[in-house]
Amino acid sequence: METSAENARPTFYTVREAAQIMRCNPSTLYRAIREGAFPAVRVRTRYVVPAAAVDKLANEASTSGGCVDVAQMAAEHRTAQEIARLTGGAR
Protein backbone atom coordinates (compact mmCIF):
# COMPACT_ATOMS: atom_id res chain seq x y z
CA MET A 1 0.00 0.00 0.00
CA GLU A 2 1.97 2.98 -1.24
CA THR A 3 1.04 6.56 -0.43
CA SER A 4 2.51 9.89 -1.42
CA ALA A 5 2.85 11.12 2.16
CA GLU A 6 3.87 9.11 5.19
CA ASN A 7 0.45 9.11 6.91
CA ALA A 8 -1.83 9.78 3.95
CA ARG A 9 -4.42 7.19 3.05
CA PRO A 10 -4.18 5.62 -0.39
CA THR A 11 -6.70 6.46 -3.08
CA PHE A 12 -6.82 2.81 -4.17
CA TYR A 13 -6.26 -0.51 -2.46
CA THR A 14 -5.16 -3.75 -4.02
CA VAL A 15 -7.86 -6.40 -3.89
CA ARG A 16 -5.89 -8.22 -1.21
CA GLU A 17 -5.64 -5.05 0.92
CA ALA A 18 -9.35 -4.26 0.53
CA ALA A 19 -10.28 -7.85 1.41
CA GLN A 20 -8.06 -7.67 4.49
CA ILE A 21 -9.72 -4.42 5.59
CA MET A 22 -13.16 -5.95 5.08
CA ARG A 23 -12.11 -9.24 6.68
CA CYS A 24 -13.07 -11.38 3.72
CA ASN A 25 -11.22 -13.75 1.43
CA PRO A 26 -9.60 -12.05 -1.58
CA SER A 27 -11.15 -14.66 -3.90
CA THR A 28 -14.60 -13.64 -2.62
CA LEU A 29 -13.85 -10.02 -3.44
CA TYR A 30 -12.41 -10.92 -6.87
CA ARG A 31 -15.58 -12.87 -7.64
CA ALA A 32 -17.80 -9.94 -6.59
CA ILE A 33 -15.74 -7.56 -8.74
CA ARG A 34 -15.97 -9.81 -11.82
CA GLU A 35 -19.74 -10.17 -11.30
CA GLY A 36 -20.10 -6.38 -11.14
CA ALA A 37 -21.22 -6.54 -7.51
CA PHE A 38 -18.33 -4.51 -6.11
CA PRO A 39 -16.69 -1.40 -7.58
CA ALA A 40 -13.15 -1.66 -8.88
CA VAL A 41 -10.93 -0.22 -11.58
CA ARG A 42 -9.31 -2.58 -14.04
CA VAL A 43 -5.82 -1.66 -15.17
CA ARG A 44 -4.93 -4.20 -17.84
CA THR A 45 -5.15 -7.51 -15.98
CA ARG A 46 -5.11 -6.05 -12.47
CA TYR A 47 -7.94 -4.69 -10.33
CA VAL A 48 -7.67 -1.92 -7.75
CA VAL A 49 -10.42 -0.97 -5.33
CA PRO A 50 -11.22 2.69 -4.65
CA ALA A 51 -10.69 3.51 -0.98
CA ALA A 52 -13.87 5.59 -1.22
CA ALA A 53 -15.86 2.42 -1.99
CA VAL A 54 -14.52 0.68 1.11
CA ASP A 55 -15.27 3.80 3.19
CA LYS A 56 -18.80 4.08 1.76
CA LEU A 57 -19.46 0.43 2.54
CA ALA A 58 -18.32 0.88 6.14
CA ASN A 59 -20.40 4.06 6.53
CA GLU A 60 -23.51 2.41 5.10
CA ALA A 61 -23.12 -0.56 7.44
CA SER A 62 -22.68 1.61 10.51
CA THR A 63 -25.52 4.04 9.71
CA SER A 64 -28.03 1.41 8.59
CA GLY A 65 -27.33 -0.84 11.55
CA GLY A 66 -27.91 -3.84 9.33
CA CYS A 67 -26.58 -5.85 6.46
CA VAL A 68 -25.47 -3.82 3.42
CA ASP A 69 -26.07 -5.27 -0.03
CA VAL A 70 -23.03 -4.17 -2.02
CA ALA A 71 -24.49 -5.61 -5.23
CA GLN A 72 -27.52 -3.34 -4.80
CA MET A 73 -25.26 -0.34 -4.17
CA ALA A 74 -23.30 -1.16 -7.33
CA ALA A 75 -26.51 -1.59 -9.35
CA GLU A 76 -27.83 1.78 -8.13
CA HIS A 77 -24.53 3.40 -9.09
CA ARG A 78 -24.62 1.84 -12.57
CA THR A 79 -28.23 2.98 -13.01
CA ALA A 80 -27.33 6.54 -12.01
CA GLN A 81 -24.41 6.50 -14.45
CA GLU A 82 -26.64 5.23 -17.26
CA ILE A 83 -29.26 7.90 -16.54
CA ALA A 84 -26.56 10.56 -16.56
CA ARG A 85 -25.22 9.20 -19.85
CA LEU A 86 -28.66 9.17 -21.48
CA THR A 87 -29.58 12.64 -20.25
CA GLY A 88 -26.22 14.20 -21.00
CA GLY A 89 -25.30 14.49 -17.35
CA ALA A 90 -28.47 16.28 -16.25
CA ARG A 91 -30.44 14.74 -13.43
How many domains make up the 3D coordinates?
Answer: 1
Question: Given this structure, which CATH class is correct?
Answer: Mainly Alpha
Topology, number of strands: 3
CATH architecture: Orthogonal Bundle
Question: What is the percent of helical residues?
Answer: 40-55%
Please list the strands of the largest sheet in the order they lie side by side: 1-3-2
Strand and helix order: EHHEEHH
Would you give an account of this structure?
With 91 residues, this protein is an alpha+beta fold. The chain has a single domain, classed as Multidrug-efflux Transporter Regulator, Chain: A, Domain 2 (Orthogonal Bundle). 53% of the residues lie in helices and 12% in strands. The protein is built from four helices and three strands, in the order βααββαα. It has a three-stranded antiparallel β-sheet. Helix 1 packs across helix 2. It is globular, with a radius of gyration of 14 Å.
Report a brief summary of the structure.
The protein has 4 helices and 3 strands; from the N terminus they run βααββαα. It is of the alpha+beta class and 91 residues long.
